[in-house]
Design a protein that fits this description.
Elements: E1 16-19, H1 23-35, E2 40-43, H2 46-55, E3 60-64, H3 72-86, E4 93-97, E5 112-115, H4 120-130
Parallel strand pairs: 1-2, 1-3, 3-4, 4-5
Helix pairs in contact: 2-3
Amino acid sequence: MTLQGRAHLATDTSPILIVDDEVAIAETLAEFVTELGYTPVLAYNGQEALSLAIERWPLLIITDYMMPVLNGVDFVKALQEEASDRRQALPPIIMLSAVSTARAIKGIHVEAILAKPFDLDELEDLIQRLLK
């Protein structure tokens, strides 16, 4: 895990919401964003993530596409509705997927789709760019 010497010292108390039903991936991502200086909040399905996002609006979201209960696309759609109801901007969203998602995500807004397995350096660059 390379941090390219650019660890960010977060001053914002808003968390980065990490959503993945694979515990090992979620925990690895949590450790990674912690090393970047951000506060991670973990959810293991889209429904849990939606509840956490409503409770504490995230700075950024990293979500898996395929999950039980509420998949990544349905989670993002529900979050878009919540953002509209709040009259609040949708946080930047990075979607992770082991399958082709281009057709499935039509109609939702995500800043990037990273294929699993993903490169942590690429993820770091993306996070830094989105949170400038």
